Amino acid sequence: MITVALPKGRLAQEAARLFINSSLTTIDIIQETRKLIIEDESSNIRFLMVKPFDVPTYVEYGIADMGIVGKDVLLEQGKKVYELLDLGIGKCFIALAGPKGMKEELLNKSEKTIATKFPNITKEYFENVLGEDVQIIKLNGSVELAPILGLSDMIVDIVESGRTLRENGLEVYEKLYDVSARLIINRASLKLKNKIEVIVNHLERMVMQ
Ligand SMILES: Nc1ncnc2c1ncn2[C@@H]1O[C@H](COP(=O)(O)OP(=O)(O)OP(=O)(O)O)[C@@H](O)[C@H]1O
Ligand SMILES: O=P(O)(O)OC[C@H]1O[C@H](OP(=O)(O)OP(=O)(O)O)[C@H](O)[C@@H]1O
């Protein structure tokens, strides 16, 4: 039995679709919305529906053999898992952003405060790229509110269309990393379970199309 951790939320549909379209399962995984463990006995694959930020944890500890998760989460957590495939879904980027027209002023400010869901990415960027210490305020969502209300000077957050920034009077100051969903694998599973390779090959062919 192979166990796959799938992210609930915005990636769920497309992640499940990859397994269905690759003929790896015939079960309509996302229809069973409240079930957290979905077993496909015919293909011997079991799907776990977990929060996106928890996918690497399940894979690192070997509860799941593989998982699908955004590169943002991998960069933030640095878990010990193999990243095998860029799945080409969930495309967006991580950006430093702030109030429109204030970039120069805020980047020259001596003591900056940054609100973000990604404290490690933010710390690493300011320390290693800009050589600065910054105060980081960890938020769990609606990060764009922080500079509008004076909680922070700037934010580090996900941008896709740019609409959330625009509609809140903010703009991208710097693009930090491109993001897309990745297939990650538990290190021991990759060595011990032959079926992993078959699944990876199926998904790879699907992604190449
Ligand atoms: N606007 C977006 N467009 C495209 N991909 C996105 C966007 N926002 C996030 N993502 C990607 O999808 C992944 C899952 O995002 P999702 O919003 O479902 O969960 P989350 O950010 O962990 O928040 P929560 O579960 O708390 O709602 C992110 O880790 C990122 O890789
Ligand atoms: O550039 P856009 O297309 O507007 O997308 C970017 C927005 O999408 C994500 O938020 P999400 O909807 O996941 O809500 P959250 O802020 O509560 O995490 C992200 O954190 C941005 O706020």
From TrEMBL:
It holds the Pfam family HisG. Lacks the C-terminal regulatory region which is replaced by HisZ. Pathway: Amino-acid biosynthesis; L-histidine biosynthesis; L-histidine from 5-phospho-alpha-D-ribose 1-diphosphate: step 1/9. It comes from Caldicellulosiruptor morganii. Catalyzes the condensation of ATP and 5-phosphoribose 1-diphosphate to form N'-(5'-phosphoribosyl)-ATP (PR-ATP). Has a crucial role in the pathway because the rate of histidine biosynthesis seems to be controlled primarily by regulation of HisG enzymatic activity. This is ATP phosphoribosyltransferase. InterPro entries: ATP_PRibTrfase_cat, ATP_PRibTrfase_CS, ATP_PRibTrfase_HisG, ATP_PRibTrfase_HisG_short. The keyword ATP-binding applies. It is found in: Cytoplasm. SUPFAM superfamilies: Periplasmic binding protein-like II. Keywords: Amino-acid biosynthesis, ATP-binding, Cytoplasm, Glycosyltransferase, Histidine biosynthesis, Nucleotide-binding, Transferase. Heteromultimer composed of HisG and HisZ subunits. NCBIfam families: hisG. Its EC number is 2.4.2.17. GO terms for molecular function: ATP phosphoribosyltransferase activity. Belongs to the ATP phosphoribosyltransferase family. Short subfamily. PANTHER family: ATP PHOSPHORIBOSYLTRANSFERASE, ATP PHOSPHORIBOSYLTRANSFERASE ATP-PRTASE. PROSITE patterns: ATP_P_PHORIBOSYLTR (PS01316). Residues 51-204 form the ATP phosphoribosyltransferase catalytic domain. The keyword Amino-acid biosynthesis applies. It catalyses: 1-(5-phospho-beta-D-ribosyl)-ATP + diphosphate = 5-phospho-alpha-D-ribose 1-diphosphate + ATP.
